[in-house]
Amino acid sequence: MDGLELKIARVRAGLTLWDVGQLVGLHPVRISEMERNRRPISEAVAKAVGLELTESSKIEA
User: Fold this and answer.
1) Which helix (H) or strand (E) holds 17?
2) CATH code (residue 7)
3) What pLDDT is recorded for position 54?
4) Which residue range is the domain that position 21 belongs to?
5) pLDDT per residue as tens digits for the range 12-40
């Protein structure tokens, strides 16, 4: 999964960056960085927008 897929899922879910940030406890800027492929996508953010990370796209905790 890449950042564009994350953004599309977020918009389709009717969520703002702020909404996702509140759901997962991250600043909206961090979510934006994930959508721009500047930060790995966390499992919590993916789930918040209705996506599931594959094993190859999971980040190390």
Assistant:
1) helix 17-24
2) 1.10.260.40
3) 74
4) 3-52
5) 999 999 999 999 999 999 999 999 999 99
User: Residue 61 pLDDT > 70, yes or no?
Assistant: no
On whether residue 45 sits in a domain, the answer given is yes
Burial of 55 (0-12, 13-18, 19+ CB in 10 A): exposed
Q: Higher pLDDT residue, 57 or 54? A: 54
Would you say residue 41 lies in a domain? yes
User: Is 61 a domain residue?
Assistant: no
CA distance 6 to 35: 6
pLDDT for the residue 25: 97
Measure Cα distances from 8 to 36, 60, 61 in Å: 12, 24, 25
Residue where the block lists tokens 């990370």: 53
